[in-house]
Amino acid sequence: MNKTVYNNLHRILMIRAVMFLATISICLSGTVNAIAQQKPLSLDECIRIALANNLQIKTASLEVQRNRVLQRTSLDLPKTSLTLSQDPTSGGNMDNSAGISQNFSLPRVYINQKKALEKQTLLTERSKTITQAEISLHVKQGYYGLLYSNEKKKTLDYLDSIYSDFMHKVEARFKTGETSNLERLTAQSKFQELQLSKKENQADIEINQYRLQQLMNYNKPVLIAGDSLKPIVLQKHADSSFNNSPLIRYYDQSKDLSAARANVEKSKLLPEFTLGYNHQVVIRDFNPAKINRDYYDGTRIAGLQFGVTVPLFTSSYNARIRAEKINESIAQSKRDETERNLQTEWQQGFQRYLKYKQSLDYYLSAGLQLSDEQIRIARFAFDKGEIGYVEFIQNISAAIQSKLNYLTTVYSLNEAVITLQYLQGEEYQP
Q: How far apart are CA 134 and CA 137, in angstroms?
């Protein structure tokens, strides 16, 4: 190939490569800048956004709205009866007759129906509260999970800086013959293991971000405002009533709804009434019975109708009443079972909290300081040649592992506290 052609082709390829890399760089820079410009969100903000945007909560809100509309059906009067007739017995002239009638129950029936529909609406609101509590729980777990992964990343980055410095020194000693190839390979192996741990932790960060993004129905990655993982303070240190638990309140409302429906069925045993009105225009010339009628052509005869409907066969009504009473007992049974389960879960969670609290107290009082001192002395001794690579790696690994254990302890303690707060229906306390 001609040298000039070759140079021109090479130059074109280089220009295109530079343009491609520039385009990729601009795109990545735009994405990074978009994320960087995004406002970090606090835990309360994440919960607020999730409660406003989550699709499950939106569905629950629509169910509440539907039941509120159904409350207007409490006064469900039967259809009004309208009649229009003509009398063909008036000598070829049709007499016109029009009437109207309406069936209705006693006011107690409609009052009971209104109460039952209101309690049905409250039950859907209790169901929505359960969904909100669960979403809040998951948001808290995702938020603190992301904090934990971010804190772990800082610790791994710190270890990365130590190992990087360690590798440079090992390489320098290896070139001067002060150390063996085994020490060099060991340093490289530890460094690669650390890189793998960092990749795994980065995956955990992205998983928690996606988890929050899904819960909040967000269209972009979630950045959190917290920069450090801190233990949550447990406000109550002994088990107490679970009356504020969304589950308990749901079954209490379910029990009230069954009682209200039983009252509706009882009120259906009351008599129903019919009230009607009609009027008729008659023809004077037609009177085959020779009856003296003191009216004339065009006279309007008006009449009222009143009737009473009494349920003589009440077996079906009584069966529905008993069924609602059974539903009331079922709701009470479920409430009792749920309260026992909550009590058991609370006791187990509280024991986990005490376990992690004991470990946390150790790390805060002595463990973290000992780790920092162990790292400082190990680095100093290795630089001075007082310890070899094996002792250095052992001490550094033990100290960093202690720091990671502290983070895991804080994360586990927060998980326990969040669960205890959820079980008792408590609001978030920072």
A: 5
